[in-house]
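Schema walk-through. Below, the input block comes first and the output block second. Nothing else is stored per chain. Lengths vary across the set, and this one has 317 residues.
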Amino acid sequence: MQNIISKVDKDAKIAVLAGGMSSEAEVSKRSGNGCYEALKRLGYKNAELVIVDKNIAQTLKEGKYDYAYNALHGKYGEDGCIQGLLEILRIPYSGCGVMSSSICMNKEFTKRILSTNPDIIMAKSAFIKKGEDVFEKTKDLKYPLFVKPVSEGSSFGMTKVDKAEDLEIAYNTAREYNDDVLVEEFIDGFFVTVGVLECNGEPFATEILEIRPKNEWYDYEAKYSSGMSDFIVPSTSLNEEVTAKVKEIAVKAFETAGCSGVARIDFMMKDNIPYLLEINTSPGMTVISDLPAQAAAMDITYDELVQLILNSVGLNK
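--- output ---
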């Protein structure tokens, strides 16, 4: 995809939102700096890198920005909070809107929404609210299990559990991040992820990225430490028919959850069946992040990817 046309005036004042108050703040700063540098190269001379803190409402009001480019990850930045603030301030912003951001940040509610689409397959799971008995709630699940905070990114608080004796420790680890916890049956397959972008309002899937982590699974270290994962894009483990199916399901998930602009859909593949894991509504944009690698496999440069995402401002109602 070449010669992506800008839909934003090059003189517009753009706030690139980065940092924030989540456990993913440092990753967000790296994403935000990359996006900011790309916007400057693209000719947006009035783009500014804005490090988000508790005074962000005042910063945005005083800055009199025309647009916001959202490079935040995690709580307050990917869960509908910053999106709601931008709506109140009437600043058009990139990426997903309030509703889809808040739904997709919560893994349980993502599963509930996506379960309305019969084409989307997900792992069997149990949702444990604060105060509920984790053993009682998970008694019908088969080990190994994955224990996850229900609203956290970058694999924070996640643990693979092979036997019941280790479940309580994993549950308490997840609860350090969220009161509510999602426990899923472990899919013994391999991990793939698909970006979904929009061009002129039409969603399309990127190439499929297969990730082979050097750790047991795709944890924080494997995601953000150079050399800790092998990226294969396009995936060499999927035939043409399965590749088309995974891309189709990714777009269906994007639409079912009401996403706009950009998202990344994660799957575990087993026996050529894609088990959807989650939807990331503000994917990482660091130099080693998944989405830029997926785009590059389609001959979309990093700068063109940033332009595509910027073009989504105002579409996320």
